[in-house]
Amino acid sequence: MKVLITGGAGFIGSHLADTLLDAGHEVVVVDDLSTGSLRNVEQHQGNSRFRLWVDTILNEALLNDLIAECDQVYHMAAAVGVKLIMNRPVETLETNVKGTELVLRLCNRHKRKVLIASTSEVYGKMMDGNGGHPLAEDTDRLMGATTKRRWAYACSKTLDEFLALAYFEEKRLPVVIARLFNTVGPRQTGQYGMVIPNFVQKALLGKPIIVYGDGTQSRSFSHVSDVVEALVRLMDTPAAVGEVVNVGGTEEITIKELAQLVREMTGSASEIEFVPYERAYGPGFEDMRRRRPNIEKLKELTGFTPRVDLHGILRSVIDYHQR
Ligand code: UDP
Q1: What value of ipTM does the predicted structure carry?
Q2: What residues are paired with 117 via a beta bridge?
Q3: Strand 222-223 vs strand 252-254: parallel, antiparallel, or unpaired?
Q4: Is 192 considered catalytic here?
Q5: What is the mean pLDDT of the chain?
Q6: How far is the CA of 202 from the centre of ligand 1 (A)?
Q7: Would the pTM count as exceeding 0.90?
Q8: Which of these, 14, 19, 24, 137, is most buried using a 10 Å CB contact count?
Q9: Residue of 135, 195, 202, 216 with the most ligand 1 atoms within 8 Å of its CB, for mutation
Q10: Beta-carbon neighbour count of residue 174 at 10 Å?
Q11: In this structure, which residue's CA is closest to atom 14 in ligand 1?
């Protein structure tokens, strides 16, 4: 098959490209290298089954041609990372709203199956006593005020989900929506705020590990290899069409415990420093206190559950940064 990956030079997209090429498919990538990088795909240089277009997904003529020539589309291109989202809200909204609208419209024109990468951010501020945990796909969502720009990302991806479901219901376009929780692994940059690469880099350099807030907020991480496997299985599962499916790990850890674990596993003497959210993200920032997925639906549809546990995830990131 010939597969188009938007954002295929990014962290998750490039691992997806590796897997699809290994499986014998042809892979076409369109990526503007805003957060992706050539280094992520340089291993495919000279491979006749791989092609990279460095351009924005808002280039309609290009995207139209690429979708027309491919059998399947993984739409992974998005503005990501809390710091980037806080700093560049216009770009965030344009990429996530206009970009996804264009991908869906063109997939519908050519009747191509499309997987939309969504995010656990769409759950908003759901937490204990307020919708419950773990988060299931049909849990009610709670978004913050429009004056708090952090929620622009969550709202833009929410709109993407509504639009994808509308194309499925009204136009019978085969779409699958994967809601990705915190994904970690080699090639993820800490530049846009992501916690694990940040902690690991600081620990290896012996610099202070910076925990935002009091560190009691928690997350559940999954390894990029598990996420990619889940995405491919979802794309290839007919029963997943028209569905929203959580993809993530279920092992929950507080950010403070995570800092301690990273320090332990790297044998680092780094201090752990606590810094108010405002200093990291600017005024009025609201964090998600908890975020753990219910992954029963993924299991039921694909038979898949993540294999790499938190230790394995950290080991792989530490090895990557040590190299
Ligand atoms: N965080 C932190 N120190 C860092 C980066 C992130 O304490 O250097 C915290 C962040 O405030 C959040 C959690 O770690 O509570 C996860 O952040 P990340 O940006 O990785 O993902 P999010 O789940 O917020 O999208």
Answers
A1: 0.98
A2: 178
A3: unpaired
A4: no
A5: 94
A6: 14
A7: yes
A8: 14
A9: 195
A10: 19
A11: 195
